[in-house]
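[Discussion] Sanity-checking designs against the backbone

I'm trying to build intuition for which residues belong where. Below is a structure token string of 226 positions. I'd appreciate it if someone posts a full sequence so I can compare it with mine line by line.
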């Protein structure tokens, strides 16, 4: 998979890909991340990427020309499956969307800023609009990092244990069961006995029950309740 991220603040997006799982995914050649500074596609001397909105009103709007130039340059080199725009009024990101995106080959992600982009960008270049939740961030970069993280960890080979991505919370609309590690007794707080019993069918049943109980208590909406 290759992801090209278009942004006015590329610095925000460097560290997420320099550590841990995402770093290893890149080192293994399973994903390529390319950051593109929108200012590099501005032709005027002031390096202007935003302007006042037509009709008046507070807030600047990202101009179409630099975005067009950047996207055109990328598209001249390869085909893209999707051009994603990160925006608070996009479709709410969830595990199902992450699963679908993880199957793509080449993606462009455009990060919005200020009042957002000129509507003509959305009308003519964007194929998918994503929000990460009902609150407003200063820009789409942190949201893009979240989408990249959720997607990249699903690519086969990225996680050491292939099954662990499939047992995550939300993968089957149930929350994950509680987990424990050594010591089995810490200050009198004991690990549930079933987990140290060695009875694996019983452990599996316990985990399924816990998943269900947790979901019912914390996220009844996932079970179609409330
Ligand atoms: Cl994708 N962008 C911004 N600016 N704010 C958000 C968001 C995206 N998703 C939730 N809030």
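Best answer:
Here's mine. Compare freely.
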């Amino acid at each position: 998979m290759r992801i090209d991220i278009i942004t006015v603040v590329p610095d925000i997006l460097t560290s997420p890909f320099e550590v841990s799982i995402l770093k290893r995914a890149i080192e293994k050649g399973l994903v390529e991340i390319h950051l593109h500074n929108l200012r590099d596609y501005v032709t005027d001397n002031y390096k202007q990427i935003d302007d006042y909105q037509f009709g008046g009103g507070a807030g600047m709007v990202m101009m179409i020309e630099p975005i067009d130039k950047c996207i055109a340059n990328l598209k001249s080199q390869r085909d893209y499956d999707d051009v994603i725009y990160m925006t608070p009024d996009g479709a709410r990101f969830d595990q199902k969307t992450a699963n679908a995106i993880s199957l793509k080959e080449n993606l462009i992600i455009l990060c919005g800023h200020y009042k957002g982009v000129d509507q003509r960008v959305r009308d003519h270049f964007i194929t998918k609009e994503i929000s990460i939740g009902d609150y407003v961030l200063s820009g789409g970069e942190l949201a893009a990092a979240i989408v990249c993280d959720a997607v990249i960890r699903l690519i086969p080979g990225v996680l050491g244990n292939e099954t662990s991505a499939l047992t995550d919370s939300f993968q089957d609309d149930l929350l994950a069961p509680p987990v424990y590690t050594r010591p089995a007794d810490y200050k009198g707080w004991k690990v549930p006995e079933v987990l140290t019993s060695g009875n694996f069918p019983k452990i599996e049943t316990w985990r399924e029950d816990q998943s269900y109980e947790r979901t019912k208590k914390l996220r009844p909406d996932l079970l179609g309740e409330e």
